[in-house]
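Justification of computing resources. Each target in the renewal requires a structure prediction run like the one illustrated here; the chain below, 148 residues long, is used simply to show the kind of job we budget for.
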Amino acid sequence: MFPLFISEAFVTALVGFFQLTSFLFVSSVKIDATLLALLVMSVYDKNWARRLSWLIIAAVILKFFPGFDWSLALFVLAVVAGMICIDYLPLLSIISFFIAVAISTFIVNFHFFGIEWVAVYREVLLNSAAGAAALFIANFAYGKKTIR
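Resulting structure tokens:
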């Protein structure tokens, strides 16, 4: 189990650093790759201690400066809300995942919702499509044939 945690922590750090670049922009909307990576790994790994350690790694990489930042608080709230949706919605895991992606994206972009609501909806659709691709890839990485 420990090598799996190391690889998941490495993926979290790698995606976190990749999130800081400008490669993830698609028509002026940036994919929340770190959010998606944490939610995809949460579909397969139900251990909350590991999940919180991934969240700490991602938060340190994305917001590495002293002081409080509201966007960091919204990010942490969004990831925790997404993980709770994945665990406790009485639906198939894949449906719970897409609901969690939508809710998490709305929470992360809460401060933009009144101003640029069309961009927020585009980001929800883009994150859902990227999340579907990430789930497809994770199926091979985790070696599971079905998501339950």
